[in-house]
Amino acid sequence: MPPSRSPAESRFSATNIIWVLHLQLRMINIADTMLKILPTALLLATASLYVFLPTSHATGFGDLELVHGIEAYSDNKSDEALQHFETYIKEHPYGQFRLEARFLAARASLRSEFPKLALHYLTELETALPDIGDYVLELEARSHQALRQWTQAGSKWKELAQSYPNSPLFEDVPYQLGNVYFAQGQLDAARTQYEQALQRAPKNARAPLAQFNLGQIAEKSSDFEGASKVYKHFVYYQPSHHLSPLAKERLENLTQKQKAPPASFGLRLTKIDKLITRHSFDRAREELADLQTLQLSEEDQLGIDYRHGKLLYRQGKYEQAISIFTKLAKFYPGLQSVEFMKWISRCYSSSGNPSQAVAIYRQLADQYQSRSTGRQLLFKAAWLSFNGGLHQKAIELFGLFLERYPQDQRAPDAYWYKAWNSYRLDKLPAAKATLEELRATFSTSTLVQHAHYWEGRINLQLGIPKAAKKSFEAAQSIHPYNYYGTLARQRLRELEQIQTPLTLNSTPIELASLNMVTDSATDLHIEKKAPSSHSHNLLPSEKKEDASNLPLFHEESAFQWSSPEGRRILMLLRVGMAYEATHLVDELQATPGYSPEEIAYSRAFLYHFLGDHYRGYKLAEKTFRSTIELPLGKESRPFYQMAYPNAHPKLVQKAHEEFGVAKELLWAVMKQESAFNTRARSWATAAGLLQIIPSTGRKIASALSVEPYHFEMLQEPQTNIRFGAWYLSELIRKFEGNIILAIASYNAGPKAVSKWVDQRHSMQTDEFIEEIPYRQTRHYVRKILGNLGVYQELYQGTTLDVPRAISSSYLDN
User: Of 675, 674, 650, which Cα lies nearest the Cα of 663?
Assistant: First the structure.
């Protein structure tokens, strides 16, 4: 037997540096430009070592076999990975990385369903690799569970909790022990562990299964009331959860045996509300049909009618819906009727009768003028006028709102919409005057930048190019890289190309076209030019020097890598568990002599380096907000790269190659959808980096022949990015290459966007975006385009040109 690794061998040696860099640069594919802005002298030294070390030297250490194994493991090719690890173990029985190789082989063995082999490789590894002893115990426990060796599994979980109370695995232990006891039929012990787990970590991914198992334990213990309570929670409050059908089956069984009472009428209505909220309309309709078979009181029938009315509205059966809501409004007096009158107004608006919709809101606004309800209703009446193309009416009602409620929080928006409706009626001087009033009255409003940009557009159409230039410069000075800053910079570039004022006087300037690649309408046409890179040293001020002159093993580092946290991070890197190291970043001890800014930058960089782009982005955005609002240049570029990371580059590159969607577009959408949080979940149960809802996920899985498929796969970056890229490519194809419409469809759905194209296809792109009917989608498109502009300039070295006009047609796919 080879001797165990001594603590001294765990130090950050030259060989370890080689291993870490080979591993990390291959596994998470950090770009060469990132290497040139590494935040500490230590990491700069490792980068230099990687760049200048011949591959043959690394091969001599045998680590490439392990690197290939880790690559295969990360691609879910566990059998291939196991072969690589076993080859290394066989050919290097006394190699420097023999212990890491055994750990890696154990992980691959367990994933390949060879738990006995995993236990063989894990023998005595907890002692030999103390920095990751908790992960060794976890693998041992899971291997015993796979072999149904429950006693041994429970022993390992308990040992993990006792020996490593600060491990990120600690919160999983009671969940796992609950599963172990449940499998053994030790129901009281299982209940105790599950309850402890839910109290300690209620948001853990294992929480729903623990809750469901508590229901089964209650049922087996003849606590039918407790069991039905758990099952009802899934059936009626989480009807879209994958455990809901199982809970429904067990609940029905209890009800048939008269062990549990039938669900109350109100609870069944709650389920229908949940289904409607999640757009599960067919299921909601079935539930309503079931309720209709019961003997109902008049009030119960009204409750059903209300849900039925909402479903009819969703189906576009507006006259029937109006009939139902009118009945409800008559039954409920006073303020209670307002909700139903608002639904009637929605029906009129959606059916192409905006005048009637506005009249209802205006009448209610006057009726409740002194209440907050009145404010909301008047603003809504004004907005519906605008949305319905009643621009003169909108000007009148927004003006009335400002007259009645000049200090209301919606007053800046009222100014903005009043100006916009004047613009739409070609009353340009009036629109310009209102925008100037908006800026003067609410100088700190976020709408000031909007106003500057559109004052510039109006000045161009009035033939005042100097004033237009001044307005665009003011807009871009507020933030050069958000949506309006991007548009303003584009307008200024166009102004520079104008040779004579006559062109300005005769034709309004249009936005430049966003050309598409000729052989693929699903990718942005961008110049394939590597962006310039700049070294950004964050050494203590008295020791700043050019990175290229740093010795290979510089003593300076922003963090103390010899600390327990530092050693643990390095060990996790060596065994391919970079992401698992991220929980230690905040705990890393800083080296004296570095400024708070330098330490914060180093932590943000390290998060990205380890693959936690969510926390890296959040830290950078919080700490360097003022810097990333400056023009992109030598000094600000490193901070922009922290706030706009090229996250999951290998997976994004694969998706780009498979579906043709620009990488920059995928990153721009990812940033807005999830902020790079792989565990992100929305109210509509959308999941993962690109926020895919379950129904869409199932359709994409079918289209891509992904089998077997289950909802939890959307939490996996490799699946989520691939599915999101496919969907974006289909939307881009549907709208014949128009990125704007594809982005809007990703948020609002292609059906709604197709309707908008039919109504507004003659408008210029910036005008079209201002009139997107959904506030959320309007904001979404602006944010994505702002993100896209930064990403394209940051990683491609080119500026974004927004399309001149929207597509006038689209495919029926």
Answer: 650
In DSSP notation, 200-268 reads: H-TTSTTHHHHHHHHHHHHHHTT-HHHHHHHHHIIIII-TTSTTHHHHHHHHHHHHHTTSSPPPPHHHH
Strand (E) or helix (H) holding 111? helix 98-111
Query: What stretch of H or E contains 198?
Result: helix 187-200
| Distance of alpha carbon 259 from the chain centroid | 43
**DSSP three-state, residue 622:** helix
Task: Give exposure, 121-158, as e/b (b: 16+ Cβ within 10 Å).
Answer: bbeebbebbbbbbbbbbbbbbbbbbbeebbebbbbbbb
Q: Cβ(379)–Cβ(360) under 8 Å?
A: no
Token pair 């115990």: residue: 137
Residue 610's CB is within 10 A of a number of other CB atoms, namely 24
At residue 715, the 3 state secondary structure works out as helix
| CA-wise closest residue to 731 among 709, 763, 762, 753 | 753
Contact (Cβ atoms closer than 8 angstroms) between residue 178 and residue 204: no
Task: Provide the 10 A C-beta neighbour count for residue 249.
Answer: 11
Cα dihedral sign for 530, 535, 538, 539? positive
Mean pLDDT by runs of 10 across the 813 residues of the chain is 37 38 39 33 32 33 80 90 95 90 96 97 95 96 97 97 94 96 97 96 92 97 96 92 92 95 93 87 92 90 94 93 95 90 95 95 94 94 95 98 96 98 97 98 97 97 96 96 95 79 37 30 29 30 32 54 90 90 92 89 92 95 91 91 95 96 97 94 83 90 91 90 97 94 95 92 92 94 96 93 85 79
Give the active site residues: 673
Name the amino acid, one letter, at 78. S
CA distance 150 to 189: 13
DSSP class of 407:
T
Neighbours of 65 (CB within 10 A): 22
Q: Look at the block and give the residue holding tokens 């109100």.
A: 266
- The Cα 705–Cα 140 span in angstroms is 34
Give the SS3 label for residue 147: coil
Separation in Å, CA 635 to CA 45, 78, 516, 627: 21, 43, 32, 9
Residue 233 DSSP code: I
Backbone angles phi, psi at 223, to 5 degrees: -90, 75
**Helix-helix angle 465-478:483-497, to 10 degrees:** 150
Residue 128 exposure: Cα atoms within 13 Å on the Cβ side? 19
Instruction: Collapse the DSSP code of 248 into the 3-class scheme (helix H, G, I; strand E, B; otherwise coil) and give the result.
Output: helix
Write down the residue that tokens 């030019």 correspond to.
529
First to last CA, the chain: 64
